[in-house]
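re the bet — no i am not wrong, look at it urself. input seq straight from the record:
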Amino acid sequence: MGCAFSSADITGDGMKINIIKELAKGGFSTVLLCQDLHNGDKYAVKKIETHSKEEIDRVMLEVEVHKLLAATPSAIQLVSLIQLDNIFYLVLPFYSLGNVADDLTARKPANNHLPFSEVVTFAIDVCKAVKVLHEKGFAHRDLKPANFLICDGRKGVVLCDFGSVDRIPFEVSSTREHQRMLDAAAEFCSMPYRAPELFTCDTGSIITAAIDLWSLGCCLYALCYFQSPFDAVYEKGNSIALAAQSPDKIDYPKDVP
């Protein structure tokens, strides 16, 4: 599974791919648009630099989840894994239509809502992938429109980015675990879509698949109204943790087709 890196090319696992450009950069990885030099196919390659055994273990967990979801059409498929020393390259399909978050952002200025049929199709696709993930004993922990990639012809979406996954159920059994879970939530769970229990991680509580169900609700809201029900709170710098305790106060815009 080793590879050699020459010029702008990544070679390994029977593949030789050329880096075209950077698509996105996060705190822990970079996504690159690449092209296979053998057949011209384009891929999205997730580059992850690791600096500890814990970080390597997290990459391996992400790869494990990809394998568990290999038969799930609405989950992004891992094409190949290439490793160069402490750097891992996850070769993934490239979705030229991008992600749902960017699509919603482009639509918002003109108040161009997603057709209801797409709202339903996208939501069902994500729920199918999440259902399998939960059945395998994992929570995604970062469900949001940016992690829903639009399929060709807008015929559906696939769920991506399994770097945030964790095993469930998980009991917060000590003060140490309480702090670890708080840190993990801050690191992996986008605040406007984060479940209330992940803001507190109370000692003695049990973290379950319910955290993803909360996020799915926020995602469904975003599909209808362009953003999470807590985005406005976040943008104002107010406490989402407090706002999430009062879901009855969520505003539902009336100007929706």
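see?? The radius of gyration is 19 Å. told u. also The mean pLDDT is 94. so pay up
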